[in-house]
Design goal:
globular, 7-stranded mixed beta sheet, Rossmann fold, about 50% helix, alpha/beta, about 625 residues, 22 strands, about 15% strand, single chain
Length: about 625
């Protein structure tokens, strides 16, 4: 509920708008009379003007109110606001003309202002109110960030590569927001038809290949890339050219982000690896996802991790009734909690420190909050580390997942979504095998007597920027001066961005009916050594010249390439082109119960080879790594 202070401030703001608008409208009406009569108004009209302004201005204010001119902030003014303002004053003008015609035909025409005054008043009022709003906007956008004066008032001269819709939006934003300290001076674009023309008064000099030639003429010191998302090869060429010229290079948000209102064109950022991978933007059925999450209690395990945190962000934006954040790491949980609070989601989130291995704690959480959906992202996922600690991998990833899923079924959770991995396909690592065993477990629980929960698993590959990705390791090695270590020149991996993978997880969950394993379209596999080279170049260095690339051999449990489909799984399409469904004959619930009970007895620390050998009985496609 709004507080009394908030209501008072709102009232004062509306009163201030009323006073400003009223003053400008009165001045406009008086000036219209003066212009109509060449600044020589007869005495009789002086008296009539005083009487007419008493009702004409309130009518204009009424129409402005009806068209929403008192609801927005005065300093936010764009073309739609101008159209609404002109429409409101135009409607009032139309009413005045209708009344004027009535009095002209049937009554004393002096009761109304002359027709010329009505028209001139409309034009002047529209200009004055628009100029007032534009002035406030210019003042707001010209203020330096955080209200502090800029220590260097000189604006950086920037060149924009890409003269399309995104580039045009960037130029508009930068020209309007002088406080950002950047001035666009030239466009570059591969479209020959645009060369020599101007956009917002800024010339399109030619293709990006002319950066070096045009630099002297336009004296720019920074490049802003505003190319389409699918132009990753051209983007890489521009980055290389800019680096060679010693120019700082940044990139703008995607057109999807701009259109959705999530970001503004001026929110540029450094070029990252994901910009160069050529991933097409994901199109989601937002209504289907919204229907699944809206007004529901949703629980996310591993909420502080890379995937779990992004799940929390995207779920919170879809208005759940409550969002339960579960993580065993207090530090990570605090970080995502503070981020969500800062985004305005504080009232709906509940952060809980817990491990999924504590069944009593998890049972209490399910009983207390009664979630309708669980997204299970908590896991041990570092392949080489888990290879040396198979007990922990199986305890957490396999037994922990199975027991949490069993509790979900016991408490009538509507959907249980298990975040799996492509490493679960024909696994060669304990981590991959533990995930495959968890998949088998949740599929079997779908058939458990009395179960009403819809279980599904979602597999995807490496996620850029996650804690288990090679990217943070490469960046750290580059910052240290190298070498960048790659296990094998032929190693390939699938890569996805965190927001992309989580969006598709939500889409998969909305399609789940129970027992499915969904696989996300991860595009083409990429050589890890190519990733290393691109990161070195993005950091301003030359591979094998400034930064060495060193091959260290495959680590325990690693494959040269990851697979997508497990032997015995049948492929089925879904309603989404980036999501596939694999179905197979699952193990029976009785079998899995027996396996899990037996597995608990096998989890004895120090017996690594024995545990791996035992796993081959449950997961025959598992090829263990022998030390």
């Amino acid at each position: 509920m709004p507080t009394w202070t908030h209501q008072r401030n709102q009232l004062l703001r509306h009163l201030a708008v009323l006073i400003f608008y009223g003053g400008l409208l009165i001045f406009s009406f008086y000036l219209a009379y003066e212009l109509r009569f060449d600044f020589v108004v007869d005495e009789g009209y002086h008296l009539a003007r005083r009487a007419q302004v008493m009702w004409i201005v309130p009518v204009e204010i009424f129409f402005l109110f009806m068209f929403g001119q008192f609801r927005g902030f005065l300093s936010y003014f764009r073309l739609p606001d101008l159209i609404r303002l002109a429409t409101a004053l135009g409607a009032a003008c139309g009413l005045f003309f209708a009344i004027w015609i009535f009095f002209y035909l049937f009554h004393n025409r002096e009761t109304m202002p002359p027709g010329g005054v009505i028209l001139i008043n409309f034009l002047i009022a529209t200009i004055l109110l628009s100029a007032f709003r534009v002035g406030l906007r210019s003042y707001r956008e010209g203020k330096p960030a955080n209200g502090r004066a800029k220590t260097d008032s000189r604006q950086r001269r920037v060149a924009i590569v890409g003269a399309g819709e995104v580039g045009s939006a960037v130029a508009t934003d930068l020209l309007a927001k002088r406080g950002l300290g950047m001035k666009p001076v030239v466009f570059f674009d591969d479209n020959v038809a645009k060369h020599g023309h101007e956009i917002h008064g800024i010339r399109v000099a030619g293709p990006p290949d002319q950066l070096a030639v045009a630099r002297e003429a336009y004296d720019f010191e920074q490049i802003i890339i505003a190319l389409p998302a699918n132009a990753h090869r051209r983007m890489l060429e521009v980055v290389h050219l800019a680096k060679a010229l010693g120019l700082e290079t940044e990139i703008v948000p995607s057109m999807w982000d701009l259109a959705s209102g999530r970001v503004q064109a001026s929110q540029i950022r450094p070029v990252e690896l994901e910009d160069l991978l050529g991933r097409e933007p994901v199109s989601l059925d937002s209504e289907q996802i919204q229907g699944m999450l809206s007004d529901k209690v949703v629980l996310v395990t591993g909420a502080g991790g890379s995937i779990g945190a992004e799940l929390c962000r995207q779920i919170a934006n879809r208005l759940p009734k409550r969002l339960i954040l579960v993580d065993h790491s207090e530090v990570q949980l605090f970080q995502i909690e503070q981020e969500l609070v800062g985004l305005g989601h504080g009232p709906l989130i509940v952060p809980l420190v817990a491990t999924i291995l504590d069944q009593e704690r998890m049972r209490w959480i399910l009983q207390t909050y009664q979630p309708a959906l669980i997204f299970h992202a908590a896991a041990h996922k570092h392949v080489p580390m888990m290879e040396h600690q198979p007990v922990e991998a199986l305890k957490n990833n396999s037994v922990g997942t199975y027991e949490l899923a069993r509790l979900a079924s016991e408490h009538g959770v509507r959907k249980f979504v298990f975040i799996s991995t492509d490493k679960a396909v024909n696994p060669t690592s304990v981590m991959g095998c533990s995930k495959r065993l968890a998949e088998i477990g949740v599929q079997a629980l779908q058939q458990a007597p009395g179960n009403t929960t819809q279980f599904c698993a979602v597999r995807f590959g490496n996620v850029l920027g996650s804690s288990g990705s090679v990217i943070p390791t490469f960046k750290r090695q580059i910052a240290d001066g190298g070498p960048v270590t790659v296990t094998h020149p032929g190693v390939t991996r699938y890569f996805m961005t965190i927001p992309e993978s989580v969006g598709l997880v939500l889409q998969s969950a909305s399609q789940a009916r129970g027992g499915e394993i969904f696989v996300l379209d991860m595009g083409q596999p990429i050589k890890i050594v190519d990733v290393a080279r691109q990161l070195i170049e993005l950091s301003g260095f030359r591979p094998e010249v400034d930064i060495e690339i060193k091959y260290i051999g495959l680590r325990p449990g690693e494959k040269l390439f990851e697979e997508v489909q497990h032997r015995g799984e049948l492929f089925q399409e879904t309603t989404h082109p980036r999501i596939s469904r694999f179905v197979c004959q699952p193990a029976t619930f009785a079998q899995v119960q027996a396996w899990m009970a037996d597995l608990r007895q096998q989890l004895v620390p120090g017996q690594r080879d024995e545990i791996k050998q035992y796993l081959t009985k449950i997961v025959p496609e598992y090829t263990p790594y022998r030390e």
